[in-house]
Amino acid sequence: MISSAKEMVMLTHARTLASSPTALSSYPVNVRPSNRSFVTMTTTTNNNNDPHEVDAIFQRKHSLRSKLRKDLKNMDPIRRSEEDNAIQSIVLEAPWFKASKSLCAYISCATLREVDTSRIVSQVLSKPTEEQKKLYVPRVEDRNSNMRMLNISSVDDLIVNSMHILEPAVVDCDGKHREDVMEASNPVDLFILPGHSFSPSLLVAYPYLMHREKYQELANQRKWKQPLLVALSYSLQIVEEGAIGVTSNDVPVDALVSPAGFIPISPAALDRG
């Protein structure tokens, strides 16, 4: 199982190219996706709680997700590879990535058509222990897609779950439970998030939602700086302004990386970009 996990990370083609940028919308806390689509982009600001309007927004989001899933499935493999490479190169060269000492990042899954993160993860894990960034990656805990973010220091710490997604084993080789990000003794600098659809309004939420909110509370309690939230997006995931609406559950991210480049959204991203 360990060698299988190694092959899936190390032999995944570093894939990625360009069009104009933008950003995202969300699943409400009580409506979880059946797979691991973490972020969807959002547009017009509308915090109206009218149930008919909210229902209409979710219907539009559902239609958009269905269309994008089809588009991603039919995406030309060469273009996907070019865009994956471009996005990962931007991240790896970014000052906010280089300066990070501790981060949360997802292990990409080709079946879910997520932007590839194999080069990013491999670069973090290939450093000598004393130079290595602390890395937390998600583990799905139940059928509601609730997640924990567990610390890994090697590809050997990953296993392939029943959905053929790489995730950390709960215990290490010594039988000790892996550290959850909520048990961290030092702050996390960066969250790297997969996306689903993005629009110029640049608002977002994601299935790390509950865990992220809990971490934010922890950071506030300990007077830590909040992590930079950066979403990754293929060019075809960027949609027109007004394509989807915003609900009160949508949460802003700080920046978006598309093949076109780094798009800062919040003042924090402008400061660190």
Can you lay out the helices and strands and say which pair or pack?
Layout: H1 2-10, E1 24-25, E2 40-42, H2 51-73, H3 77-93, H4 95-99, E3 102-105, H5 118-126, E4 134-140, E5 147-152, E6 158-160, E7 166-168, E8 190-194, E9 203-205, H6 209-221, E10 228-232, E11 255-258, E12 261-264, H7 267-272
Parallel strand pairs: 3-4, 3-8, 8-10, 10-11
Antiparallel strand pairs: 1-2, 2-9, 4-5, 6-7, 11-12
Task: Describe what you observe in this structure.
With 273 residues, the chain is an alpha/beta fold. The protein has one domain (2-272): NagB/RpiA/CoA transferase-like (Rossmann fold). It contains 7 helices and 12 strands. The chain has a 7-stranded mixed β-sheet. The radius of gyration is 18 Å and the shape is globular. 46% of the residues are buried. Mean pLDDT is 76; it is low at 1-35, 37-47 and 204-209.
Summary, kept brief:
It is built from 7 helices and 12 strands. It has 273 residues and is an alpha/beta fold. The protein has a single domain (2-272), classed as Rossmann fold (3-Layer(aba) Sandwich).
Task: Tell me what the CATH architecture is.
Answer: 3-Layer(aba) Sandwich
User: How many helical elements?
Assistant: 7
Order of helices and strands: HEEHHHEHEEEEEEHEEEH
User: Strands of the biggest beta sheet: in what spatial order?
Assistant: 5-4-3-8-10-11-12
DSSP helix fraction? 25-40%
Instruction: Kindly give the count of domains.
Output: 1
Under CATH, the homologous superfamily reads NagB/RpiA/CoA transferase-like
Mean pLDDT: 76
Strand content: 15-25%
Oligomer state equals: single chain
Do you know the CATH topology? Rossmann fold
Q: What is the gyration radius calculated from CA atoms?
A: 18 Å
Largest sheet: 7 strands, mixed
What is the distance, rounded to the nearest whole angstrom, between the alpha carbons of the first and last residues? 39 Å
At the first level of CATH, what is the class? Alpha Beta
Shape: globular
Number of strands: 12
- What structural class do the secondary elements suggest? alpha/beta
- In the predicted model, the low-confidence regions spanning at least 5 consecutive residues are 1-35, 37-47, 204-209
Protein name: 5-formyltetrahydrofolate cyclo-ligase
GO molecular function: 5-formyltetrahydrofolate cyclo-ligase activity
Pfam family, one: 5-FTHF_cyc-lig
GO biological process, one term: folic acid-containing compound biosynthetic process
